[in-house]
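Ticket reopened. Same input as before:
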Amino acid sequence: MAQRYSSFSSGSTAWLLQRITAAFLVVVLAFHFFNLHFVTHAYEIEFAGSQARMQNVGYFVTMILFLLTATFHGVNGVYNALVNQGIDGVQKRIAQVVLGAAALLLVVQGIRVANTLAGF
Amino acid sequence: MSQSYDRGLIEDFGRWREFTAGMWAWVFHKFTGWVLIGYLFTHIAVLSTSMQGAETYNQTLSGLEGLALVRLLEVGLLAVAVFHILNGIRLLFVDLGVGLESQDKSFYASLVLTGVIVVASVPTFVSGAF
Amino acid sequence: MYEHDVIVVGGGGAGLRAAIAAHEEGADVAIVTKLHPVRSHTGAAEGGINAALQDGDSWEDHAYDTMKGSDYLGDAPAVDTFAQDAPEEVIQLEHWGMPFSREEDGTVSQRPFGGLSFPRTTYAGAETGHHMLHTLYEQVVKRGIEVYDEWYVSQVAVTDEDDPNERDCHGVVAWDVQSGEIAGFRARDGVILATGGLGQAFDHTTNAVANTGDGVAIAYRAGVPMEDMEMIQFHPTTLPSTGVLISEGVRGEGGILYNSEGERFMFEYGYATNDGELASRDVVARAELTEVQEGRGVEDEYVYLDMRHLGEERITDRLENILHLARDFEGVDGLEEPMPVKPGQHYAMGGIEVNEHGETCIDGLYAAGECACVSLHGGNRLGGNALPELLVFGARAGRHAAGADMPEPKIETGPEPDAEREDLGVPVGEPGAKEAAADGGAVENPASDPKAVVEATAETERERIETLLEREDGVNHADVRADLQESMTENVNVFREEENLKQALRDIQDARERYQDVYVADKSRTFNTDLQHTIETRNLLDVAEAITMGALAREEFRGAHWRKEHQERKDDEYLKHTLVSWNDGEPELWYRPVILEGDEQTYEPKVRSY
Amino acid sequence: MSTQTPDTDSETEQPSSTSPQERRMAEKQARKEQREADEAAAANEIQGETVELKVFRYDPEIEGKEEPRFDSFTVPFEKGMTVLDALIYARDEYDSSLTFRHSCRQAVCGSDAFFVNGRQRLGCQTQIADLDGPVRVEPLPHQEVVKDLVVEMDHFYDQMESVDPFFDPDETPDDELEEQRQDRENREKVKLSTRCIWCGACMSSCNIAAGDNKYLGPAAINKAYRFYMDEREGENKRQERLEIIEAEHGVWRCQTQFSCTNVCPKDIPLTEHIQELKREAVKQNLKFW
Ligand SMILES: Cc1cc2nc3c(=O)[nH]c(=O)nc-3n(C[C@H](O)[C@H](O)[C@H](O)COP(=O)(O)OP(=O)(O)OC[C@H]3O[C@@H](n4cnc5c(N)ncnc54)[C@H](O)[C@@H]3O)c2cc1C
Ligand code: HEM
Ligand code: SF4
Ligand code: F3S
Ligand code: FES
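Engineering reply: fixed in the latest deploy. New output:
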């Protein structure tokens, strides 16, 4: 039973989380795009500006959540796509390990970047 | 069991002509999803330059933003993200069991809306690059 | 060789019910079927399943209606057993989860049906047979009963005693359609034939392409008599191009029949001045054909069934499936145009002669379902009585074959030396049967060891198929079949005249001669439907001949059987069944009296009017 | 003009012995002769409208057919003709080795699902008049071909049978004649799901089923739905069924492509049923938390 609750397991939890993160991402991704392309234009971005935004705690937390949900959502999505293609056995194990590691790497690196930008 | 002939890949390729709305939606969603996760990795990689100091960060960013190609790719990214969002919303409704009869219409709506938003955003995205 | 206690041939309603019953008796059962069970034609039944379930109804009334419907050609022990067992069988289906239509209080709904004195037809929407077939198959899956699907049974393995009453059946020979493998199936306790209808003997039928009377012909050539074969029910409203059935519901709701002159002929030509379109099936079918014969048919083929005046709302509410049928199978929009209809072969009342336990005269050989004739439907089957028959007699055959203790049967089976015989004066049977021992009959089996009997039969079958496949040139079975169907529809249809019947027998003789040169163009062992159809055509020849022989012999008008020269029922002469025995290639027609004394009542023949 | 002369002349000009009946018979005879003449002509050359069929051919055993190919058949068109009718004509008139499954001819046996002009359809339920010619008939995609239009169905059957496709209540009434009650709403709920004829069209149209062999597929999930939603079954069985439904290769694999729903000849809302089961599984599992 326990396995069901891991993010790589099949079953309702992963499915539900994929939807919940999607719902969350709709808002945040739209906000993110809007903020960094329309409010501030992408070509105007400078370290200082990023830092200023990151020092707002609300923004910082949102970005971390953004990172976590997007990572889960994206990696779980890719994993699902692979299972849908019928991978099995060793292949599946490899996919789990590789994707898991990639997700971990992404999250760790993302947090480090966020910390740097926020100046922690 | 008798020996049997597997039509293999011939049958899968070329079938796209016969795809219906729901299939296309799935193909596009899959494609955009992969692009987005791919971008997420690159994005974090690019932002990592901030760890080498503000200078590097600014240089990398402005360097990239100075390239017309990057600007165009960003428009593509926008298209991809908008479609994924809109179709994602469509899928969420499908998951809730709402409006299944008009799933094809909502897919076309996502496509059209994506087109409109992207076209409308082009000026903002490319301003100053050319 | 495969081995089981009980082998059931056919996975339709009767076969599945038999297999479940035998399994419940503890037997190791296998179903051998040429179609996957869910593809069987039981799935096509729309109307319903009759059983006396409610207060105010009784099995006696159901039996009475059935006997009256049969025009007193049913055997009372069969009719009584049927009516008594039906309620339990239907509730059994309910317990197995069949999605019956329901009343407000959650009980199974029952509706009125033609010829019934009480609304006792249970149903599941307009697809009762589909649900019944799938429910039964589900139970087969649940019990893990082995199914050999797409295996074509072509012979029963029977010992070669002279008298069919002395023969024993030890199994069947079948052939795997997918791979071409021919194998013996040894049945330790019994073989149950449940192969369904024989509509393909006619060129216009509501029956499936697979309904080729295989079981009937197989049992017949092994020595079992065919009973009341002339009793064929024709349905008045079938679509001309495919034979798809348009249910009585359309006429029940107020649909009208027109001829090409736009006349409402049921009234205008006095076929049924009271009931009009709602007269019984045979009356309407004859009226339609008379119109066509007298030149008032549309395209000289069919008449119109019009429901447009009922209004779109009522049609979509009550007859929606009819709209789909007309649209999908005839390309006609029932809301815009009248639907073309004509009579089509629908059901065979006759078949393999069996008793109440499904036993034939050959020990260990049983039959159930449409291929069998317990003498339940006699001269005419009531709508909704075939499906419960599958259940009641399927279950009984299964139980008996598996060795259950059952009372002595009251119905006799098997050829009788002293029976009254009829010489029809027209050549019938296998050309040259006298010289050569007929094929397909009891194979010469000096051995008494059951396995050797099965193996020897399998060997003859291998040779036969080898010969068919080796022949490089000859007659295509499709031509023989087409000619046979055409002649049957022309001559042995709703209208039967002596001269036409004789013509049909001559045509059949002719077809038999041609069949001797038949060849199979497709030489592949893989899924060779050409070969399969070739073998089926042979079976059709045998059943068509018996149908025609019976029709020629029965010089009266009873039930579905109408003779131009003999316009009334003759109870003093013909209260008897016609039986045809293969007799090693020289068919013989004889009679056995009808049994009218039942458990509770003796049925007195009355005029059949509704 | 006198009113007495009118039409009598013209009336007497007709042979007075002809009753309308005889006239019709004569006409009928004439029409029959015409038809026979037409048929005779048709035997040499097909007249009138025709349909061109392009049919996939393959037989592992027969020389020249081991390599799959398409054969063309020209078949006379008749009003109301279905794809199955055309195939039967081609087989009976031109090539008796043309192989395909069929039986009922009325969309209940589920034998003849083919890939016709790029879509899974029942041959018997498809009017030629609704298709653009030439009509291309192929075996169902994503299934192994046994011969010509016949595909291997075993995998489909295995999936159908893996969902415990049978009614299995915790208890049934003791009395043989007492029925279990089912209210009308509950019957309505499962009604559409019970219409499946096992044709396999849905499974063949689903890309996920094509990639993932273990995926139950729309038809089997629909079968599971039929029993899961039936209130006459008990709690224990319901739990067991849920486990089958929500296993890794159960409902979660469905990506809502809707092609199953589009092709189902019995108009079963398959995607809807699958989605409902996904939500049901989530709901049931949330209860454990
Ligand atoms: C359109 C239509 C509507 C009907 N409506 C009703 C109705 O409303 N109510 C009612 O009571 N009755 C109705 N009937 C009659 C009833 O449906 C049939 O009589 C009944 O279903 C026959 O069932 P069966 O099991 O005997 O045969 P089938 O269901 O035909 O099954 C025959 C089985 O035998 C197998 N088989 C055949 N030959 C061989 C062989 N050589 N080797 C191996 N296997 C073989 C086949 O594969 C098949 O599985 C209707 C019939 C039709 C055609
Ligand atoms: C950073 C943002 C996002 C990334 C990286 C991302 C990535 C992905 C990926 C890789 C997939 C798998 C695609 C496949 O099946 O091959 C996916 C699926 C999905 N995405 Fe996103 N996505 C993002 C944002 C969103 C948003 C904003 C929504 C909005 C609702 C969304 C909704 C969905 C849904 C519903 C699926 C599920 C497909 C399924 O499993 O049935 N995604 N996403
Ligand atoms: S669900 Fe529809 S398409 Fe699928 S097998 Fe059943 S009837 Fe065929
Ligand atoms: S096509 Fe396949 S993906 Fe789901 S909606 Fe149907 S099962
Ligand atoms: S032939 Fe039975 S479904 Fe088409």
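Residues 42-125 of chain B form one domain. The pocket of FE2/S2 (inorganic) cluster (ligand 5) is lined by residues D 102-105, 107-112, 122-124 (CB under 6 Å). Please confirm and we'll close it.
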